[in-house]
Fold this sequence. Notes:
By secondary structure, the chain is α+β, with helices and mostly antiparallel strands. It contains eight helices and eleven strands. It folds into two domains: 4-141, Jelly Rolls, CATH 2.60.120.10; 146-223, Orthogonal Bundle (Arc Repressor Mutant, subunit A). Strand 10 and strand 11 (208-211) form a beta hairpin. The chain starts with 17 loop residues before the first helix and ends with a helix.
Amino acid sequence: MHEGSCIDRLPFRSLLSDEEISEVKGHSNLIRYRKKDIIFRQDTRTSHIMLVLSGLVKIFKEGRNERTIILKLSAPGEFIGLLSVIGDQIYQYSASAVEDTEVCMIDFNVFKNLITGNGKFAFEITRVVSRGGLFIFDRLMSQSLKQLPGRIADVLLYFSTDIYNSTTFDFPLTRRELAELAGTTKESFIRTLSEFKNDKIISLEGSSVEIVSMDIVKTLSQLG
């Protein structure tokens, strides 16, 4: 179904001319995904620029022996797959819907024309791509260099500050997926999370979390 209105939430829309907006609207579609649906698969060919309108998207890298690393979660207003679409013709990672999700699909050639013809818009998109790459770089460094408590603290801070902007939230992922986000095993993640609860750093009931001592969580993250 063609729904040009989905482009109304395009980041940096104010930098586009009426003609450019009209062109994008004529080549964009709103696609709805159910929870756990695959949006795109690693090692497949890129085709569209994708913008999350609602829901939550898991970006993950699949390796050998069914090992998976969750690189990040993308919330409404964020592009997904931009690193691969602009940098390569093949997706270097996969994306799936964590919950029911709406995505605006924009024709790549139209988006490319915006970048080549509108310098201010191109600069802002370059900043988005750079921040995305640096974020993934920092995540992988955290998984490689930090001890387990520091990595679990990073996960808590990620949901609290980047995703929900609250000290109280529900984990949207399974314990296994949370472990993949932290770069550890499910058993180690659960054990460390229980230690945080016993030490009254967090309050935990099922998937519902409250960060009781943000200072301690930040200190654990900083010390690694």
